[in-house]
Amino acid sequence: MIQEVNSSMKEKHFLPVVTEISANQVRPNSLAEIDEERAVLPDIINLYETACGAEKKAIEANREETLRWCSYAREFKRMYKDFMVNNKVGEKKAKGQVYDFIIKQLPDTKRKTLCRQTQKALRIDDLFEKIGMDKLQYIKTYSADTISKFTVPQIQTIIDHFTEKRSQSEQFTDEAEDEEQDDEVPEGSDQNNALEVLSLAKLTSTAPIPLAHIPNSSDDTSSSKKLDTKVEVVPPIPQPNNPTHVQARNKVLKLYPDISFHSKPSDESEDVYRCRTKSSICPSCKTNHKENIVGRYWEGSYLLSCMYKMKGLEVVV
């Protein structure tokens, strides 16, 4: 997974180009070969394009599923914590009450299946909460099921790779282990692939992207439905060596006053922004979410994107 994310980050700005084969380069020896070429060429091109399209859809579907499980995990954690406070019960009891609530609304759902899927969602979310949801856009082949089957040491290896400094509190703890163990999650052949990729952690040299996470809906309690007008203090902005990059970042802050500069990772080509308040709008996806807004300068262009709209928008300098 580490190798896949790193290689995808490097290839992000290079789009595949399909070139037409010149008739002068390929000269059939007979009319029969000409007819055969005309008959076969359109079919093979169409099949190739169809296969590429299917592959792209599969990648997008993997990312979409992973994102949805993370969102479910965040809401699950918010609900059981609310139940602990409102119903004055322990964590395990509160989680059981959330299960009861879901099953009541979805009576066809088996409790065993619900518990297993919740465990999967929590494991996936715990990983991306540590390394940043922005890494999701670089994953191509790893499905949600594959990621959920990573062991604790494997997950910690990934976290170590994508974080420069890790405090004791940032170490991965498997919250899913506290869930009701009604069924064991079967280990698939994808586990071997994960082990193989994780062994390449120390061989990569791509600079890590800073920590970022989906805003936890537990921050919005019933007593704080009013819009938060507090504006966070913006730290001094470190200046990169490229003056065009500086101009692009300053233009972003001028065009989109709802966001502020938050931090700059070790990768000089990237900037991390945040929405200033709970009512601020992300310029990329036009919705409100505090974090996961990233600007990237690349060869004279500046792309502003977020986890909800990874294609983003281009800022012309």
Secondary structure category: alpha+beta
Q: Beta-strand percentage?
A: 5-15%
The total beta strand count reads: 5
Distance between the termini: 35 Å
Q: In percent, how helical is the residue content?
A: 40-55%
Unreliable stretches, pLDDT < 50, 5 or more residues? 13-28, 165-170, 181-240
Count of the separate structural domains: 2
Strand order of the largest sheet: 1-2-3-4-5
Shape: globular
**Biggest sheet statistics:** 5 strands, antiparallel
The overall pLDDT average reads 72
Gyration radius, in Å: 24 Å
The SSE order reads HHHHHHHHEEEEE
**Number of helical regions:** 8
Q: What can you see in these coordinates?
A:
The chain has 317 residues and is an alpha+beta fold. It folds into two domains: 48-203, no CATH class; 226-315, no CATH class. Helices cover 44% and strands 9% of the residues. It has eight helices and five strands. Strands 1-2-3-4-5 form a five-stranded antiparallel β-sheet. The longest helix is centred in the first third of the chain and has 56 residues, at 31-86.
Describe the secondary-structure layout.
Elements: H1 2-11, H2 31-86, H3 91-105, H4 111-131, H5 144-148, H6 152-162, H7 190-198, H8 243-255, E1 259-263, E2 270-275, E3 293-298, E4 301-306, E5 309-315
Antiparallel strand pairs: 1-2, 2-3, 3-4, 4-5
Q: In brief, what are we looking at here?
A:
Helix content is 44%, strand content 9%.
Keywords:
alpha+beta, 44% helix, five-stranded antiparallel sheet, globular, 317 residues
